[in-house]
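Anyone able to model this chain together with pyridoxal-5'-phosphate?
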Amino acid sequence: MSSDPVRFDLDRVRAEFPILSARTYLNSCSLGALSRRSEAYLAEFRERWHAMGASAWYEHWLGRIEDLRGRVAAFWGAAPSETALLPSTSVALSVVAESVPVGSRDRVVCSELDFPTLAYQWAVKPGVELVVLESPDGVRMDPEQYAEAVDERTLFLATSHVFFTTGYVQDLRTLADIAHRAGAWCLVDGYQGAGQVPLDLSSTGVDFYTAGPLKWLLGGPGLAYLYVRADLARTLEPRITSWFAAENQFGFDPRAFRYRSDARRFEMGTPSLPTVHTALGGQEIVDEVGIERIAARNRALTDRLVVRCAEMGLSLRLPEPAHRSAIVMIRHDDPPGAVARLAERGIIVDHRPGHVRVSPHFYNTEEEMDLFVEALAAYPA
Ligand SMILES: Cc1ncc(COP(=O)(O)O)c(C=O)c1O
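re: yes, here you go
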């Protein structure tokens, strides 16, 4: 790819993703597009399964897991020893929830804008008080709200990097500081952040961050990634575990469990190998284009979308520019109807209550923004 901070070879990138020549695909915050690169990794996985059977584990697949861990760690600015692979965000959150000491701190603070599986972890735990803060405007949270709610009884400040229905980007350093000032942990659901917002987790101070390949990282369903800050990855002792978390994984001694000395002590069994392969393909492309270019490109596409919507009289629910991402909500009286009619024209977007949700990614074009806006405007809100 070019060294220009903004430009990259868009045609070459688009050629990697077959769906882009068949559809106007604008729903990457639900599911990133499948690339030829991911398919090639998947084909390699299948071929080795055919050719080698179980010996592929030792000769190739354990190595592929480490390839992915290394890429993800470098991508989000942490060490491989701070990066665990898990089956889903929900499992990652559960193992974090089960890894901190239970004591006088029994309150967890989150927001009504978070993806609900974040709150559900604590809603089902006896003795835990779950505080769900209200958004002042349905789009954002004010850091002061967290600062007021997080106190000496708080175990976690648990919230999102980017809110899934509003695209609002929260500042990780601010969240971590608020949590730590009160002696609480900072846990961030970064599923909608990783792959569209540049990350340097080690410098943010957050204790835990979860993400996965499904959406902006273009790797498909079946895996999640968990960052655990180095000192915690060495010392916390999860109360749910697996053989992947054991120091001597291949010792097979049921009498001798000892935690590994890194974030793998948070792992919960065999990761989905097909997804390890598809995720490698997606991550390679993201790394080659570069997250700074992706963020700049997504900003340009989003700006175009916002301007074109205004020109066509479509009403948006948008964060202020400094906190905006590539998740754009457009008010509509019949979102499911609009989404279905757009799909008939080959335009793939999504809906949430009261809104059509559109999420372009770096592989989309300005022309696709225009096409979508004109098509939506033809189905009046
Ligand atoms: C912010 C956020 N968190 C979590 C999830 C889902 O988590 P899981 O991997 O448990 O299905 C989603 C969407 O699928 C999401 O948008």
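The chain has a mean pLDDT of 96.
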